[in-house]
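DDH domain-containing protein: structure, please.
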Amino acid sequence: MWEAVKRAVQRNSKFLFCTHRDPDADGVGSELALCCALEEMGKEAVILNPDSLPSILQFMDPDGRVQGFDRLGPKESVKRLDAAEVIFFLDAGQWKRLQPMGELVAARAGKVICIDHHPADEKLTPDSVVDEKASSTGELIYDLLKKLGHPLNERLAYYLYCALVKDTGSFRFENTSTRVFRMAADLAAHGIKPHEVYDQVFERSSIGSVLCLGLVLDTLRLAYDNRLAYISLTRNMLETSGSRIEETENFVNVIRSIDPVETCIFFRELDNGKIKISFRSKTSKIDVNLLAGKFGGGGHKRASGAVVSGALPEVIDRVVAAAADCFQ
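Here you go.
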């Protein structure tokens, strides 16, 4: 599985890493870990993401390694893309997940290697590695470092542990396997303090975000015999509470605890006339990746997303109606 990637690492010296728009701890932790590992091997490595790091992830990058296309601009970004001999695209497998720099990266597809754990109809590029059975992209990078014979250290272990704890919901989700626990134990043995990582990843809510959560929970609605729960966020709620949209990412998980709810949907109004939708399933019987696919999105069977154009009330009606198929 890793032979082509190993050859790319061994035969080249200049690398660029990127992850999807609206980055999370899995994508960022994975690219930081592999970037730093290659630097330790004597390689040149840079990180260029569509977005600059949101405030909730800046704890992972105190040295400012992660650069954003949104701030760097097309001209400087192209220089970095052209200088790289290999481009690693991590934690996503669609060019559109790299917007607004997706076309620039796709134009250089011949030197792109995707490493991802999301379902895909086909590999993005011939040498890409996609493993849907992996809990996270961080787990795949952990495997790759083992295959490369590169030793872990506290810094690399920290990045990978952040990735792992995020995508397993701190070892609560269905993707938490015995292998995940073995990996976590190995990472912890390198000086990681699990309680500190949990605090950074899951317990850093601002006052504004808590006030915003109260406003969002007031929008809670149930459908299909209480098997579907959905909530919504408007731009006005963000302004009223003084919160930032990246701080609302986990709001959808709050309503997962409602019994007998099986599926949760969170609608967020963006500032460009579009609605960002997060889908979550509590049961293996309901595949929200299929539901997200109806709206041009995707992800995992239990957690997916989409971005849809339209007014918030109209989008809610469309999506809730389409969700009927989940409960047949």
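Notes: The radius of gyration is 20 Å.
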